[in-house]
Amino acid sequence: MGRKWNNIKEKKASKDANTSRIYAKFGVEIYVVAKQGEPDPEANQALKFVLERAKTYNVPKHIIDRAIDKAKGGSDENYDELRYEGFGPNGSMVIVDALTNNVNRTASDVRAAFGKNGGNMGVSGSVAYMFDATAVIGLEGKTADDVLEILMEADVDARDILEEEDSVIVYAEPDHFHAVQEALKNAGVTEFTVAEITMLAQNEITLPEDAQAKFEKMIDALEELDDVQQVYHNVDLGE
């Protein structure tokens, strides 16, 4: 799959003030999904998923509780879910998912992050068709064969099961996310290193050194925007 999921997560969390930025973004996402449905994760699968993902980033309980309490309190703050698609240097492709309470501001900021770093915005659908929505679940303490056996016994399908450094990473259809996680929990897995539904590029590309430096600067600029929740791309950064 070309991705080292734990390394990617650690890189995101280690940049300057990125830990607090990640926590703030989770706060917005938790508030939005709690407001859209029930503020109880057992009655709201979308909220349950976000909280599972938040655990892998060690989001503090007080941030989670504050976001859920805000939704319970009937706040009238509304957010739009937006997806932008664009291109970077040398045929690189990028998808940007955002939650915003000011669409014009976010569109302007995303366009500027692309434009100032050698990229440009595309129209809807210009990039997304080259990516597949995929559930990615990582764990430690078991082998790929162990996980395969667990999933087979639970009659749960996976696209692929790979060993990446000290972790096993399961790739599955998005609607199998909870079934995979439950099967693993029932087999004694209590913590996950990764628990995400992401957009995986069907084909990754490698950029020459100068283009990669410019591309990474563009990705950093996009990820640093407060309204941006996720950035997906088709470049193998060698992490």
Describe the structure using short key phrases.
Alpha-Beta Plaits, DNA binding, cytoplasm, DNA-binding, transcription, four-stranded antiparallel beta sheet, 3 domains, Arc Repressor Mutant, subunit A, alpha+beta, Transcrip_reg_TACO1-like, 239 residues
Largest sheet: 4 strands, antiparallel
- Summarize the helix and strand pattern as letters: HHHHEEHEEHEEHEHE
- Roughly what fraction of the amino acids lie in strands? 15-25%
Q: Give the full name of the CATH homologous superfamily of the largest domain.
A: YebC, transcriptional regulation domain
Protein name: Probable transcriptional regulatory protein F7731_18670
Pfam family, one: TACO1_YebC_N
Main location: cytoplasm
Family: Belongs to the TACO1 family. YeeN subfamily.
Describe this structure in words.
GO terms for molecular function: DNA binding. Its main location: cytoplasm. It is found in: Cytoplasm. It comes from Cytobacillus depressus. The protein has 239 residues and is of the alpha+beta class. The protein has three domains: 5-72, Arc Repressor Mutant, subunit A (Orthogonal Bundle); 80-129 and 203-233, Alpha-Beta Plaits, CATH 3.30.70.980; 132-201, 2-Layer Sandwich (Alpha-Beta Plaits), CATH 3.30.70.980. It has eight helices and eight strands; from the N terminus they run H-H-H-H-E-E-H-E-E-H-E-E-H-E-H-E. It has helices at 5-14, 18-36, 45-56, 61-72, 103-115, 144-153, 177-186, 209-223, and strands at residues 80-87, 93-100, 120-122, 131-140, 160-164, 167-172, 194-201, 228-233. It has a four-stranded antiparallel sheet. The protein has a four-stranded antiparallel sheet with strand order 5-6-4-7, with helices on both faces. The longest helix is centred in the N-terminal third of the chain and has 19 residues, at 18-36. It starts with a helix and ends in a 6-residue tail after the last strand.
